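Suppose a colleague, Dr. K., hands you the sequence of a protein chain of 352 amino acids and asks what its three-dimensional shape might be. Before reaching for any lab equipment, you can write down a predicted structure in token form. Begin with the sequence itself:
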Amino acid sequence: MNHRERILAAICHQPVDRIPTDIWATDEVWSALRHYCRVENNLEVYNALDIDGIIGITPPYIGPPLKVEGSYHENEWGMGFRSQQYATGAYDEQVYHPLAEAQTLDDLERYNWPSPDWYNYDALPGLAQRTGDRAVECGYTALFYYHNLLRGLEQSLLDPFDKPDFTHYLILKLSDFFTEYHRRCFEATRGLIDTTQVTDDWGSQHGLLASQRVFEEFYRAPMQRAINLAESYGIHVFHHDDGDMRRLLPVLVEMGIDILNPVQWRCGDWDLPAIKKRFGQQLCFHSAVDNQQTLPFGTPEEVRQQVRWLIDVLGSDGTGLIIGPCHNLQSVTPLDNILALYRTAQQYRSGD
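The predicted structure, expressed as tokens, is then:
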């Protein structure tokens, strides 16, 4: 099987010759891996380490000029970020939320919402073809997360209670943008796109950030709209949701997600055999190798043991699993642990 065939077989619960792999990493880790592999770009790292991967593409931005002042920059939403250097790497931290002070529907109307016209969709087929024999992902719908980014996390959690009409309207505006933007992406790439993200971050270390009632009342219908759009183009729905989001899992499966990323079992009390038994025919599990303790602070042997355990449990039927770290590999993660993850996944067969 080639890389794309292996990924798609796992998503569709078909036999695979080995459990496929994927990788998410910070810039510092990518740099270290390029140096180790003696290659120039990230795709060559995939080749050197024989990682299957799902490669993301996005239409280039061609809209109005974006604000940049030193280390501060804004994106097309007016969200402001500043690069912050930490001991082991740098992150772009959000420092400005463009709708933080909005109070009324008129305030939302006056906001300069991005236009789907600000992107070059004609570039997408060429970008997809450059990925070679790998699965391709295009698109990112994240209604709750963008609500957080526009208003600030605290205010976005209060909005459904303090301003329900305001919240419904804000989410509708987000949904309208994402729907048209993704429709154009999917039209431009018919037959070239395998997955799209309809995603969000509902989980905390223990439990949900907001109640299931808030999800049902404000977010479920527009999220279903995004899932239905993807399905109408024959594209698999990849759902990223950090943390302990288990209470939403039955609803998300009912709504039609195909891939759950990650299985962050250190958060809460996941019963992985029970989850595989209950949802293993509907879901492909993507990325479950612990990124809070094992990968950064464990030994290579502990990483190997965990990879074998996850394959035995989440890949117990020989498919329906794509192995990778449960979030971006961080710069504190030893290279030997990263190599142990991928070499074990490529060599191990459940029950060996």
